[in-house]
C-alpha cells in the first residue's frame, strides 16, 4: 500500500508462505525505484539521474528473466525467490548509494548539517547569541521570528557565510505561545530561547535520510547544544563586565561574584569540551568512515540513524535525570549572567538575594551532578558518563570545592 509518507506493508495482503523479511526487502526495492522514477522532482544534478535510471532499467530486464523462470516452476521455491529478491535489493541499493553519496554529495550535506544543527560553526552561534541575547530573554511575540532570522542572517554575514545555496536551506522558527485562556507562557527565565528550533529544507533525494523524525532528533540536539553555547557565551560576557568594574570597585568588592562566575565557567567550559571533542567530533568521524567503507544504501541509512541516536544518548537527551540537572545548571548560569548585565556595578538588595539563591542552587545542582556521575563510574554500560566526570573533575576541583558554594554568601557591595 502507498500512503502520503511513502510505501508501507499491509500485513493482511501478505501471502502466508512469504516471510516478513522478504517483504521488507521488496518494500525497500519499491521505495528505491520510486526515487529513481521521480523525474518531476528537482534533483541535485538531473544529468546524473538519467544514467542511474537507465542502469536500473537495464537490470530490470535481467531480473524479469529470472522471475519468468521462477514462474514456470511447478512449485513455489522460497529459497530461489528470496535469492532473486536479494539480488534485486543489492543491485538497487548500490545505485541508490551512488545517487546519494556520490552524485548528491552526501558528505558535504552532512558537514553542512553539522555546521548548523550541531553548532559546528561555533563562531556563527557565538555571534548570533551576542546579537540576539537582549531580546531573546523576553517572551516571544508575533515579530520575534522575523527579528531572530534577521539576527541569524546578520551573524552569517559577519562570519563570512555568504553561500546562498547553503543559507537558504536553514531558518530559525519560534513557537509563539497561544494567547487567551489556557495559554501556556514560557518561564521568564527562558524567554524565547526555549521556543527556538532550526528548520531545514531537505533536497531530493536526501529526504530518504532526513525524514521528519530524524529532523526532530536533530532539533532536540540543536536546542541542547545551543543552551550550552549560550551559557558559555554569557559567562564570558560576565567576565568582561566584572573586569570592566574591577578598577572602580576592586577585586574584594566583587569577590563572591568572581568566585561564582569562576565555578560556573569551569564547569561549562569542560562540559563544552566534552560535547565538542568526546562526542560530536568522535561520532561524526566514525560516521564518515562507515559511509566510506560501504556501497550499500541501507548500511548508510542505519549508520546515520545510529549516529543521531548515539548523539542523543551521549548528550544525555535519553537520560532525563542528568539532562534535568544540566538544564538547571545552564539556566542558573544564564540567569546569573543576565543579572550582572542588567545591574552591575551596583546590585540592588533584591538582586543580591537572587544571586545568593542562584549560588546555592548552582552548588546543589553541581553536587547532584557529581553524585550521579560518580555513581556510574564503575559501570561499563555508560562510559560517556564516566568521560564527562573525567572532563569536569579531572583535577578534583569540584570534588573539593563544590561544597563551598552551599555556604552562606558574603554581603555583596
Describe the structure.
The chain is mainly alpha-helical and 413 residues long. 68% of the residues lie in helices and 3% in strands. Strand 1 and strand 2 (6-7) form a beta hairpin. It is elongated, with a radius of gyration of 27 Å. The termini are far apart.
What labels would you give this structure?
413 residues, two-stranded antiparallel sheet, 68% helix, 3% strand, elongated, disordered C terminus
Would you kindly provide a brief summary of this structure?
This protein has 413 residues and is mostly helical. The chain is 68% helix and 3% strand. The strands form 2 sheets. It has a two-stranded antiparallel ribbon. Strands 3-4 form a two-stranded antiparallel sheet.
Major beta sheet, specifics? 2 strands, antiparallel
Shape: elongated
Helix share, percent: 55-70%
Q: What distance separates the N and C termini?
A: 72 Å
Mean of pLDDT: 78
Classification by helices and strands: mainly alpha
SSE pattern: EEHHHHHHHEEHHHHHHH
Strand content: under 5%
- How large is the radius of gyration? 27 Å
**How many DSSP E strands?**
4
The low-confidence runs, each spanning 5 or more residues with pLDDT under 50, are: 39-54, 180-189, 403-413
Q: Can you count the helices?
A: 14
Instruction: Give the spatial strand order of the biggest sheet.
Output: 1-2
Amino acid at each position: 500500500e502507498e500512503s502520503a509518507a511513502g510505501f508501507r506493508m499491509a500485513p493482511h495482503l501478505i501471502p502466508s508462505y512469504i516471510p516478513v523479511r522478504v517483504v521488507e526487502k521488496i518494500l525497500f526495492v519499491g521505495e528505491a525505484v520510486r526515487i529513481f522514477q521521480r523525474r518531476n522532482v528537482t534533483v541535485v544534478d538531473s544529468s546524473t539521474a538519467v544514467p542511474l535510471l537507465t542502469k536500473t532499467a537495464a537490470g530490470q530486464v535481467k531480473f524479469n528473466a529470472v522471475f519468468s523462470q521462477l514462474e514456470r516452476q511447478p512449485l513455489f521455491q522460497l529459497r530461489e525467490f528470496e535469492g532473486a529478491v536479494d539480488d534485486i535489493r543489492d543491485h538497487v541499493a548500490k545505485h541508490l548509494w551512488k545517487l546519494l553519496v556520490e552524485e548528491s554529495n552526501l558528505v558535504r550535506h552532512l558537514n553542512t548539517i553539522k555546521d548548523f544543527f550541531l553548532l559546528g560553526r561555533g563562531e556563527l552561534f557565538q555571534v548570533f547569541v551576542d546579537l540576539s541575547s537582549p531580546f531573546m530573554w523576553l517572551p516571544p511575540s508575533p515579530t520575534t521570528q522575523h527579528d531572530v532570522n534577521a539576527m541569524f542572517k546578520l551573524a552569517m554575514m559577519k562570519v563570512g557565510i555568504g553561500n546562498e545555496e547553503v543559507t537558504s536551506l536553514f531558518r530559525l522558527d519560534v513557537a509563539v505561545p497561544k494567547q487567551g485562556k489556557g495559554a501556556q507562557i514560557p518561564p521568564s527565565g527562558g524567554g524565547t530561547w526555549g521556543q527556538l528550533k532550526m528548520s531545514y529544507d531537505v533536497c531530493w533525494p536526501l529526504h530518504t535520510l532526513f525524514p521528519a523524525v530524524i529532523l526532530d532528533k536533530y532539533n532536540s540536539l540543536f536546542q541542547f547544544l545551543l543552551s550550552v553555547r549560550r551559557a558559555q557565551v554569557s559567562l564570558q560576557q560576565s567576565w568582561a563586565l566584572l573586569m570592566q568594574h574591577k578598577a572602580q570597585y576592586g577585586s574584594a568588592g566583587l569577590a563572591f561574584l568572581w568566585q561564582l562566575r569562576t565555578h560556573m565557567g569551569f564547569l561549562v567550559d569542560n562540559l563544552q569540551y566534552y560535547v565538542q571533542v568526546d562526542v560530536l567530533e568522535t561520532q561524526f568521524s566514525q560516521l564518515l568512515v562507515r559511509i566510506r567503507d560501504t556501497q550499500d544504501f541501507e548500511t548508510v541509512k542505519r549508520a546515520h540513524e545510529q549516529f543521531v541516536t548515539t548523539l542523543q544518548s551521549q548528550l544525555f537527551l535519553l537520560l532525563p535525570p542528568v539532562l534535568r540537572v544540566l538544564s538547571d545548571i545552564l539556566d542558573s548560569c544564564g540567569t546569573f549572567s543576565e543579572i550582572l548585565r542588567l545591574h552591575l556595578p551596583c546590585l540592588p538588595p533584591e538582586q543580591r538575594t537572587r544571586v545568593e539563591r542562584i549560588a546555592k542552587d548552582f552548588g546543589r545542582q553541581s553536587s547532584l551532578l557529581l553524585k550521579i556521575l560518580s555513581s556510574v563510574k564503575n559501570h561499563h554500560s555508560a562510559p560517556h558518563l564516566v568521560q564527562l566526570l573525567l572532563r569536569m573533575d579531572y583535577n578534583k576541583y569540584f570534588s573539593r570545592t563544590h561544597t563551598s558554594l552551599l555556604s552562606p554568601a558574603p554581603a555583596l557591595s
